[in-house]
Structure formats: structure tokens, C-alpha cells
């Protein structure tokens, strides 16, 4: 089978397409013929090995030679003990543990997969697992009338989060690159901010801030939320995350705010509610571009540059 592989950390130039052996599913595993794999910022981080947490399990060289975790496709075969799926089933899920989605076939734990809902296509389904889980958990406590700010709102998680917050009756401020402002408005954002022109932490405080690209000081984040409000970041530099976890927690307690890192729970139960909203037409999926296996380096460069509007998908 064809797969995109890497044997060292670096930019898109370290990737190559090779013919590799077809893997056999072990006990509890499912072999999926991949129809679509959505890219996440985590794929770019694992390609480059930065931030440092992207090297967990492979400090000097990638632990997994083939990236791609958000997969959708058809079950090819199953390993011993698999009871929920059989060959021919349409499935999707976040295969973060094994990755391998930038290939014609990928192994995944049975527990990571869910049946594809009726009426949901492979491309759309692949955009949901990781980004959907982040958006659902990030917006879980939004109440009607709350002021919500989403930094990085033009990407996959952010576009879902805008729509979820609006469904809950919130006033939403969306922050991203200028090229994404109109699209964020179209999803329901009440206010939009171009991060190159304005520092959102110096504007009106919010009841909830979901920060998908944390890189400021904990004092800036403190002033971005109201007293009694919540700031949660997902991703960012190791230094920023550590400061939010340590100094941020103390500063938050001292000033009546909750500052912390959103620890995202994985698994079908955490993304299927969003899939239901998509199939019902209550949440829109926006696919920026689709790429082939041979174009994976270009796709990753596009995501790494931060210019993807919504999701980018590879279709083997």
C-alpha cells in the first residue's frame, strides 16, 4: 500500500510517499481502508517535533512514521476480540494513539472508532473527531447571554466552537487572521478581531475565553476574562502551557478567575454529539481544500502556516 512516511523531524521536505507492507490488525484493532483524513495542528507539530510535547514517545525520531489521526473509511478486517465492527462497516474516529491516516490503510483501536452516521460523508466525518471534541468540551459550560471569545476561531475547532456558542445563546467574539473574518461572521460571530491589528486581551473582558494558540503572559490572560470568568487554552508553547498551569492557576485563584489548560477527553462519546448536530444540519462543516496522498507535504505546509479556513482533508 502507499503511505506518506517520515524518519526524522523537520518541515514538509522530510516526507515521502512509499510502498509499505499492509499491516495486520492485532487483538482489539481494526484495519480501515482510508477514504479521508482531516489534518489537525497536532499533525504539523508531530512533523516538526515542536513544541517539545510533540516528541512524546519519540524524542530523537518520530514514534510513528505515518501521521494522520482523524480518519474516516471502511473496515477492511478486524483483529481478535473485535465485536463492534466487521468488514464493510463505515467508520470514523480520532486515531491519535496509532496515527497512520496518510495512507491507503490504517490500523486503529476498536475503542477509537464509531459507526459513520447515516447521511454523513467520509470527508465531512473526518473533520469532526479531534476538532469536534475540543469545541464541545471548550463550550460545554456556556450559558445564554455569556460573552465568549475564541482565539484561533477560523480553524477547525474554532469554526465548530463559534456555532456551538451561538446555539447556547452567547455573544461571540472570534479572533483570527484578517482573511478569515468574513467567514467567522457568516458562522454567527458577533464581533471579529484581526490578531495582527488588535490584542484581544486588551479589549472587553469575557466570561469565557477558549484559546487555541496560547503564547501570551498569564497576566494578559487574566485581564481577558471577567471576575468569575474562565480562560482555557488548548495547545501553544510548552513554556506558556506550564505558566498557565502553575502561575496562572495561582493568579486566577487570587483574582477570582479560573485560568487553566483544557484537558481534552478522547473517544467517540466525546465527538459523536457534534456528528449528530452536523447530520441534523445544525452545525456546518467547512472544508478549505482537499489533497491527495502525493500532496500531503503541501497540505501540512498550508495548515502549519495557519491559513487554513476550517478543515483541510487528505483523500487517498
UniProtKB/TrEMBL annotation:
<protein>
    <submittedName>
        <fullName>NAD(P)-dependent alcohol dehydrogenase</fullName>
    </submittedName>
</protein>
<dbReference type="InterPro" id="IPR036291">
    <property type="entry name" value="NAD(P)-bd_dom_sf"/>
</dbReference>
<dbReference type="Pfam" id="PF08240">
    <property type="entry name" value="ADH_N"/>
</dbReference>
<dbReference type="Pfam" id="PF13602">
    <property type="entry name" value="ADH_zinc_N_2"/>
</dbReference>
<dbReference type="GO" id="GO:0016491">
    <property type="term" value="F:oxidoreductase activity"/>
</dbReference>
<dbReference type="InterPro" id="IPR013154">
    <property type="entry name" value="ADH-like_N"/>
</dbReference>
<dbReference type="InterPro" id="IPR052733">
    <property type="entry name" value="Chloroplast_QOR"/>
</dbReference>
<dbReference type="InterPro" id="IPR011032">
    <property type="entry name" value="GroES-like_sf"/>
</dbReference>
<dbReference type="InterPro" id="IPR020843">
    <property type="entry name" value="ER"/>
</dbReference>
<feature type="domain" description="Enoyl reductase (ER)">
    <location>
        <begin position="10"/>
        <end position="314"/>
    </location>
</feature>
